[in-house]
Every structure is written in structure tokens, then in C-alpha cells.
Design brief:
Layout (H helix, E strand, L loop, with lengths): L4 H17 L2 E4 L9 E7 L8 E6 L25 E9 L8 E6 L2 E2 L1 E6 L2 E2 L11 E4 L9 E9 L5 H7 L9 E2 L3 E6 L3 E9 L4 E9 L4 E7 L5 E9 L5 E8 L14 E9 L2 E10 L4 E4 L3 E4 L2 E2 L2 E6 L12 H13 L4 E4 L6 H10 L2 E6 L8 H15 L5 E6 L10 H7 L6 E2 L4 E2 L2 E2 L6 H10 L3 E2 L17 H10 L5 E4 L7 E3 L5 E3 L18 H9 L3 E3 L11 E6 L10 E7 L6 E6 L9 E5 L11 E7 L5 E8 L3 H8 L9 E4 L3 E6 L2 E6 L5 E6 L2 E3 L2 E7 L9 E5 L2 E5 L10 E6 L5 E7 L5 E2 L2 E6 L5 E9 L14 E7 L16 E3 L4 E6 L4 E5 L5 E4 L21 E6 L20 E2 L11 E8 L5
Helix pairs in contact: 3-4
GO molecular function: beta-galactosidase activity; carbohydrate binding
Family: Belongs to the glycosyl hydrolase 2 family.
InterPro entries: B-gal_small/dom_5, Bact_Beta-galactosidase, Beta-gal/glucu_dom_sf, Gal_mutarotase_sf_dom, Galactose-bd-like_sf, GH, GH-type_carb-bd, Glyco_hydro_2
């Protein structure tokens, strides 16, 4: 149906009026790294300097091939010389004449001079991460061409700005890195609003009005666009200035990280009953209360923050991001069951805060200041810019005044003055304002503070990741203490993603500046490391008490609700039984238990009668938004039962044996094995296709390989090669059993050499260049450390060989390292495969050695025993960038074993079976 001409005209007029009443925007740049506009550009130093060309805006110019890369700490050799000159031609609508026109820069690094039509728009702006604007109404040509010229100095002429932003532990970039646009407002308009919406429905707003107007009103709208409550209005006097609105709204839907309910607050300005301007803001009703010597309360509930530090960063675009990037980051954090994020070490893009509002993350918003701080005049201006832009976001719970000594204390009162909500101000790394936020405390010192201190304990950085250390390693220790201590408000891991940047000057390789930027839970492109999955399990709001699967299992799991607001009946639970040999599975849904926050309860799983014939039970919890919280796996079958199904002992031919000067050689069913007569060590394996280079074991780690007095004998159809026990010189013993089938059994009873030891287990040699991959039954596919065992489900995993070094290359999961709960493993080689089976529980499979790395403090050291392939009963922990493993909590302590008398009955016992046949 066509609209009648008069109706069409009326609608067009109405649309024009509505547009005129709202703030209009005209983007001169693109909106992010996925939407850019070419500007003319001239770089004064470094790559591609000294010539006019073009550059996408917004961007960091290093990522576009200009200037010089440098990773903080003022180590730039062309410091002070690197500037970018920008030019852009644009038109302004004729209809904008008579309005107030601002040019808005959302972020520019660093000192920024702006000219419009050859005339200065205002003073040079200093400070990279802050939204600033100039009134350019009088400089514009309406309806015709205009010239914008911008000069950006990468390093500031203001020493304090460089101290706060550039002498820092992160990449230092240059350029107009966030959007640039014009905004057009009526001469009489709402300049800005600041909202305080409390959990009890009390609402207050401070509104800055410019020009003459006689009435201001407010209407709230729900997420689906319906009016919420009655409008609130106030009469204005004829003078412009600050006014306030207040009211009470009944039973608002509250905002929290678990239930991020938002409303739209629409402010309308009237003159003579005519609408002259409207402005809308997303808001959330919620109350933040800090109780000294107690904790942080949101909506009356005491909160434990499961947080992470986050840089605004992408490898190919530096600090230039998009809303899509913000959604990706927040969703990934939420997937790890985090509820909080700290802006390190500067304010983020506005769209990141929008996403935190809408998806639900508590935010600590931070004024830049890594170890230095802004001078007071500069800092005062930047605090005002930051709060003007960010003040209405309900996700923001704290303000941080700089980082690790980068605190200008003169600025502290300004936060309360500029923030209608009076949110608490934090000094990260200090005991300040009731919060002890010290960074990277060793476990004993940190937990000592929790138990003996008086301030609220909330480390704004802890478990500093480096390569594969930190993050999920020892988080379980720290978190259990944080949960149990009433003074703890949780904490923030360092940090979210590896800061690996694309080097346009080095053939587009990824550079994390050695170990400086390799400290993320995920890689530069969000590749998931092992710690990602450990954190996801440890920080799951649904906690399962440990449970063994036995024939007497009654289907009951004890669970705990670690949500702050949600009942577990808002979650869905499902189960799946899986036979790992046949692929047969059964599954079903469960009745969600009614368990209040912080309470314990029971989850009843009604399994079929034949459930014990399956290998593993999986339980999945999903939140009310359909997101998986975690999937727990409970092995049903045990290694000994699995070994009985795999190992074949009978054969058609007898085992044969021959002896030479130094070797015992045994043959069975096409398999030929050679053992040292001196110590029983395996020297060679051969089958019908040739040699399998699996040799030189078992070697005891860490302990004495003192197998002595080797003898051979028949045990029925089997042949045995065994050592003889001696309490002083041969207290470790081995026993090889070769079956007619060709299968080989190894039993070793052994004692670690020390009371405290990094390694407990047996090593063998195998050339790394001959391995192609493995297939194994156990927990996987990610490697583990003694202090990071969580996150891996039980199943059968196949991994191709890679040489990934965590934080330097990003093909995950890493092949090399320790893998937990091995039942069996098939080694896929370039020549022919072989299989190893164990009947022991809790065996770690060690696959070769990751490259040894350390730092000046020897905190991060990935330790591996000698040899290439190992079967371990004790493995080491991994340290962080700031603590050695043994100072990171009980889980990271060395393995403890004590037996002074070398009593054989108290020896460790490890049994392995080997299948070297052609058809294994």
C-alpha cells in the first residue's frame, strides 16, 4: 500500500524534527579497525617517513608501516622526532549552520594539535586515551569543503604524560587510534548528564544545560522499549547551568554481572512546550557499598571478584579496536566464568564499557599512570574527560588512580567531585582507602595478609602469567583461600591476552618483545592456552565436590552454588555416558536443584542400570543464557580394568631367549628385545618391519637407577628378566615379563632419591624427529603442571606433533609436556607405531621437553627429567613471572616421599605394558 502524499510529507517532517532534536553525528574517520577512512598522511621519522601518502583512520601508524615500533620503557631511539601529519577534506551539511558543532577525538597518541581551515581549534591536547572535543562552529564552511589538519606527536612535550603513558610495560604506539567525528547540537541543548540509580529505585541525575530552556524531563524505558514508571520533570530558570532530577522507581530490575538489566534514560529539554533537544543514556539500577574491614557489596550482596587485567589490543591493529573486538573479549572472559575486568592501564573504548554493561562484567576503570603519573593540571583535565565519558556505565564499580606508584594523590578528591555515584577510588599495589591491593604476593605472605590483615584484600594483579606459567597455575590454592576468608574480595589475574604485535618491519611476524608481552591466558589472536580451561573450571559458579565412580554410586553429587545472585535452578544440567572404545553414548537432562547463592545442595543423576559398562560420565552445567559453565568428567573404568581388555598374553609360539656378552635377547611373536645384562635396561626393540627406536629405560627420576644382579627365568610360558633387591645398593628393582603374544610387561619398584623432589617416574629415550603424534586415553588435550591439573576432560585424544613454545608460537594445544591420567598411549611415528598401557592410576605421560626458559629471578622454569618419553607419578609445578613455583602455594610444592629404611613394601610401584607388534 502506498502512503498518501500528504501523509508522506508529514512523516518526513516529523522525522526531520526528531533528527533536529537529537545530537547528530558525522564521522570523519571510520568507527574502528573494521571500518576506516583514508586520510592524507606524512610521518616525520622511522619507516616510510618524509613523504605524503595515505593512512587509514583510526589506526596506529606502526601497524600501517610507519614510524618505529618500541615496547615501552622509553627505549625509542627516535624519541621526540616521530610525528604524524594528517589532512582530510570534508563537507558539513548546510542545515547545521546555526548549531553548535564539536569535533570529537575519542583517542589520539599523544600530543594532538587540530586545525580546521588553517585555524587552530584550540590548545594542544595531551594524553592518549581520553575523549576530547573542540567547538569548531565558527571555523566551518557550511555546505562546502573544509580542511582538517591534525599534527600528532607520538611522545608528549609534557614529561608527566610520558611518565604516565609511555615509560611503561606495554607497546608504545602513535596515531589517531580511535574514531573522529563531528557532533551537531542545538544552541540550547543538554551538554551532559550524570546518573545515579540505586537498587532501591532511588534515581538522581545531574544535568548540564546550555542555553535558555524552561523544562527538563526524564522518561525511563525497558529493554523492549516500554515506558517504565512515570516521567520526572523539573522547571528551569532562564539561566543555563547545572540542574538535577530525582525520583523513585518501583521494583526496578537490578543490574549485576549475573543479571545485567539495563534501562534507557531519555532526557528531554523544552522551550515554550516545544522539544528542543533529547539525549538518551543506558543505565542500570544497582548499589555499590564498601564496608571497611569487611568487603564490597553490590545490591546488598558481598562480592568476590573473579577478574582479569585487559589491554586494549589486537596484533594487527594495536590499540585500534572495534565493537566486535569488545564483544569477543567480554564473551571470552565470561566463558572463563570471570565476573570482573580491570582496565590496564588506561580507559578503554566506550564500546567496551557498553558491552560490559550489556553482558555483565564489573569494571575497574583506570586513569593512566604505569609507574609515573600526570602532573596535577594535566591529570585534573584528564580525570574530568574520563569521568565525563564513562560516569554512567553501571558496570564501573571502581576508579583506579594510576598503577603501581603512578598515583597523583592530589587527584583523589577529584574522582568523588566528578562522580555522582561516589564510587571508591583504588591505588593498585597499595594498601589505600580500605583496600589492600598489593601485587604478586607470594602465597604464604598473601594468605597471611588475608588471615591477619584488616583491610579488604583485593590484589589488582596476581599470578602474573609468563609463557605457560601463572594464571591457572596455583589459582586453585589462591581461590580456595579467597573464598574462605571474609576479608577477601577476590582479585585480578595478569593478564588477558599475549601482547604479540604484527611487525610490518619484520615480514609481518608476531613479536611479544621476548617475555614482556607473553603473559596472556589466551594468545594474540585469542588462541586458548591450557590455563584458559583451568580457570574456567576453577571459577565455575557451580562447584562439584570430588566423587569417585564405584558400583555403589547412588547418583548423588554434592554441589555448591558460587553465584552471588542466581539460584542453581536457573541453570540447566545434562549428563552423558560414553564408551570410549565403541563410541556408544547415552544422555539425558537433569532436574536443576533449588540451591540458593552461597549454599550447598545435591544434584541427583538417575543413570541407566548398565551405566557401569561405560568408560566415563560427563556432567554439563549451562547458565540461563545458554552458555556452558563447564563440563566435568568422571572416569568410570579404571586403568587396571582397561589394561585387562587391551593386553594379550597368549601366543602360538614359545618365547625364545639367547645370551651374549652384554645382552639378553628375547623373541616372541615377531618381537625381538635386547636388555642389558648389567642393569636390565632396554637396549633395542625390533619387529618384523625393523627397529623401533624406543630404548634406554627405565631410568628412575629423580632417583638411582641401581638395578643389579640381573637374572632371567621362565614363569610358565613367559620369560622374566629381573633385578635383585638389596637394601643398600640395589633398592630399586625392575621386572620384565615377555609374553608369547609379544606383549611386554614392566614392573618397577623404586624410591625417589630425596624427601622433596621435582620428578617421580621412569624415563625412556626416543628420537624427537621420529614422532608424528600420539593418541592416548586420559585427560586432555592440554598439558598440565602439578599446580595446574584442572580444565582437561577425560577421553581419548589425538595430537599431532608440534614444537609450540607457549607465548612465542600459538599452535595449541602444545605437544610437548606432561599429560594427566594416562591409561594408554599409542605413539605414532614416522616408521611404525607402538603402544604403552598402564594399570596404575594417576600416571602422567611426559612427551619430550619444552625449551628451557628462565628469567633473572629464576621464577619461571619449565622443568623436565632426562630422556624423551616418561611415565611419571610426580611432576613439577610451574612458576609465574613474579614467584617461583615453590612459593606459589601448596599445589606447587615439590613431591614429598619419605622412606628412610628403603622398605620394599613402601616402595612406589609402576606397571607398564608395551605392544611393539606390527599391527598394534
Amino acid at each position: 500500500m502506498k502512503l498518501k502524499p500528504i501523509l508522506s510529507v508529514l512523516l518526513l517532517l516529523l522525522f526531520s524534527v526528531v533528527q533536529a532534536q537529537q545530537t547528530e553525528q558525522l564521522y570523519l574517520s571510520g568507527t574502528g579497525n573494521d571500518d576506516t577512512v583514508k586520510w592524507d598522511f606524512f610521518c616525520t621519522a622511522g619507516m616510510n617517513s618524509g613523504k605524503w601518502t595515505t593512512i587509514p583512520v583510526p589506526s596506529n601508524w606502526e601497524l600501517q608501516g610507519f614510524g618505529k615500533y618500541n615496547y615501552g620503557f622509553a627505549k625509542d631511539s627516535i624519541r621526540g622526532k616521530e610525528e604524524g601529519l594528517y589532512k582530510y577534506n570534508f563537507k558539513v551539511p548546510s542545515a547545521w549552520k546555526g548549531k553548535k558543532i564539536n569535533i570529537v577525538f575519542e583517542g589520539s597518541m599523544t600530543d594532538t594539535e587540530v586545525k580546521v581551515n588553517r585555524k587552530s581549534a584550540g590548545p594542544t591536547h595531551q594524553g592518549s586515551f581520553y575523549v576530547f572535543r573542540y567547538d569548531v562552529s565558527s571555523l566551518l564552511k557550511y555546505g562546502s569543503a573544509n580542511l582538517l589538519e591534525v599534527k600528532v606527536a607520538k611522545h608528549s612535550a609534557n614529561k608527566s604524560v610520558n611518565d604516565a603513558e609511555r615509560k611503561a610495560d606495554f607497546w608504545i604506539f602513535g596515531g589517531i587510534f580511535r574514531p573522529v567525528y563531528l557532533e551537531a547540537l542545538p544552541l540550547q541543548h543538554i551538554e551532559r548528564v550524570a546518573v545515579d540509580a540505586q537498587a532501591d529505585g532511588r534515581f538522581k541525575a545531574e544535568v548540564q544545560v546550555v542555553g535558555k530552556a524552561d523544562e527538563l524531563s526524564l522518561q525511563l524505558y525497558t529493554a523492549d522499549g516500554k515506558q517504565y514508571g512515570a516521567p520526572v520533570s523539573t522547571r528551569l530558570n532562564s539561566k543555563a547551568g547545572m540542574t538535577s532530577l530525582s525520583g523513585i522507581f518501583q521494583s526496578p530490575q537490578l543490574w549485576s554481572s549475573e543479571f545485567p538489566n539495563l534501562y534507557t534514560a531519555t532526557f528531554t529539554l523544552y522551550q515554550n512546550s516545544k522539544i528542543i533537544h533529547t539525549l538518551s543514556k543506558k543505565i542500570g539500577f544497582r548499589t555499590i557499598l564498601v564496608k571497611p574491614r569487611d568487603g564490597v557489596y553490590v545490591n546488598g550482596v558481598k562480592i568476590k571478584f573473579k577478574g582479569v587485567n585487559r589491554h586494549s589490543f589486537r596484533p594487527a591493529s594495536g590499540r585500534t579496536l572495534s565493537k566486535k573486538n569488545s564483544v569477543e573479549d567480554v564473551e571470552l572472559m565470561k566463558e572463563m566464568n570471570m565476573n570482573a575486568v580491570r582496565m590496564s592501564h588506561y580507559p578503554p573504548d566506550g564500546h567496551f564499557l557498553d558491552v560490559c554493561d550489556s553482558l555483565g562484567l564489573y569494571v575497574m576503570d583506570e586513569l593512566a599512570g604505569w609507574h609515573g603519573h600526570y602532573d596535577t593540571p594535566t591529570g585534573t583535565k584528564l580525570v574530568k574527560e574520563m569521568l565525563r565519558h564513562d560516569v554512567n556505565h553501571p558496570s564501573i564499580i571502581f576508579w583506579a588512580n594510576g598503577n603501581e606508584g603512578g598515583h597523583n594523590r592530589d587527584l583523589d578528591p577529584l574522582f568523588a567531585k566528578e562522580d555522582i555515584q561516589k564510587r571508591p577510588v583504588i591505588h593498585p599495589w597499595e594498601d589505600f582507602n580500605g583496600f589492600d591491593t598489593q601485587h604478586y604476593r607470594e602465597y604464604n605472605y598473601g594468605i597471611g595478609n588475608y588471615r591477619q590483615g584488616h583491610s579488604i584484600q583485593m590484589p589488582t594483579e596476581f599470578l602474573h602469567g609468563m609463557f605457560d606459567g601463572g594464571h591457572g597455575a596455583n589459582l586453585e590454592d589462591y581461590w580456595n583461600d579467597m573464598l574462605s576468608n571474609p576479608l577477601s574480595a577476590g582479585g585480578f589475574l595478569w593478564d588477558f591476552a599475549d601482547q604479540g604485535v604484527v611487525r610490518t618491519d619484520k615480514n609481518n611476524t608476531i613479536d611479544a618483545d621476548g617475555n614482556r608481552g607473553a603473559d596472556g591466558i589466551v594468545g594474540p589472536f585469542h588462541e586458548k592456552e591450557g590455563s584458559y580451561f583451568a580457570i574456567k573450571e576453577i571459577w565455575s559458579p557451580v562447584f562439584f565436590e570430588h566423587r569417585e565412580m564405584t558400583p555403589e554410586f547412588d547418583g548423588v553429587f554434592n554441589i555448591e552454588n558460587r553465584y552471588h545472585f542466581a539460584n542453581l535452578n536457573t541453570c540447566t544440567f545434562s549428563w552423558k555416558l560414553l564408551n570410549l572404545k565403541t563410541g556408544q553414548e547415552m544422555s539425558g537432562r537433569l532436574i536443576s536443584p533449588d540451591v540458593q547463592p552461597a549454599a550447598k545442595g545435591r544434584l541427583q543423576v538417575n543413570l541407566p542400570q548398565n551405566w557401569f559398562s561405560f568408560d566415563v560420565l560427563y556432567l554439563t552445567a549451562t547458565d540461563l543464557y545458554g552458555k556452558e559453565l563447564f563440563t566435568w568428567s568422571f572416569p568410570i573404568t579404571l586403568p587396571k580394568k582397561e589394561a585387562l581388555t587391551l593386553v594379550k598374553t597368549a601366543g602360538d609360539k614359545a618365547v625364545s631367549f639367547k645370551e651374549s656378552d652384554s645382552l639378553y635377547t628375547v623373541s616372541a611373536n615377531g618381537i625381538q628385545l635386547s636388555f642389558s645384562k648389567k642393569n636390565g635396561i632396554l637396549r633395542q626393540v625390533r619387529n618384523e618391519k625393523g627397529i623401533i627406536p624406543f630404548t634406554n629405560g627405565p631410568l628412575v627420576q629423580e632417583g638411582a637407577t641401581n638395578f643389579q644382579n640381573i637374572r632371567q627365568y621362565k614363569d610358565g610360558e613367559n620369560l622374566v628378566i629381573a633385578s635383585t633387591f638389596d637394601r643398600k645398593t640395589a633398592y630399586n628393582t625392575l621386572k620384565w615379563t615377555i609374553y608369547p603374544s609379544g606383549w611386554v610387561k614392566l614392573q618397577v619398584k623404586y624410591f625417589p632419591a630425596e624427601y622433596l623432589t621435582n620428578f617421580i617416574g621412569l624415563n625412556f629415550s626416543f628420537p624427537e624427529d621420529q614422532i608424528k603424534g600420539v593418541e592416548y586415553m586420559g585427560r586432555g588435550p592440554y598439558r598440565v603442571w602439578k599446580n595446574r591439573l584442572k580444565g582437561n576432560p577425560f577421553g581419548v585424544w589425538k595430537k599431532d606433533y608440534n614444537n609450540t613454545e607457549t607465548g612465542e608460537t600459538w599452535i595449541y594445544p602444545e605437544f610437548k609436556g606432561y599429560h594427566s591420567n594416562m591409561y594408554w598411549c599409542k605413539f605414532i611415528t614416522k616408521e611404525q607405531p607402538f603402544k604403552v598401557v598402564t594399570e596404575n592410576e594417576d600416571v602422567f605421560l611426559r612427551l619430550f621437553s619444552a625449551a628451557f626458559k628462565t628469567d633473572q629471578w629464576h621464577n619461571y622454569e619449565p622443568l623436565f627429567p632426562s630422556g624423551d618419553i616418561s611415565f611419571m607419578q610426580g611432576i613439577p609445578g610451574i612458576g609465574t613471572k613474579t614467584q617461583r613455583a615453590d612459593r606459589s602455594g601448596p599445589m606447587a610444592m615439590k613431591n614429598i616421599f619419605y622412606d628412610y629404611e628403603k622398605d620394599p613394601a613402601r616402595a612406589l610401584d609402576l606397571t607398564l605394558y608395551f605392544d611393539f607388534s606390527v599391527n598394534n
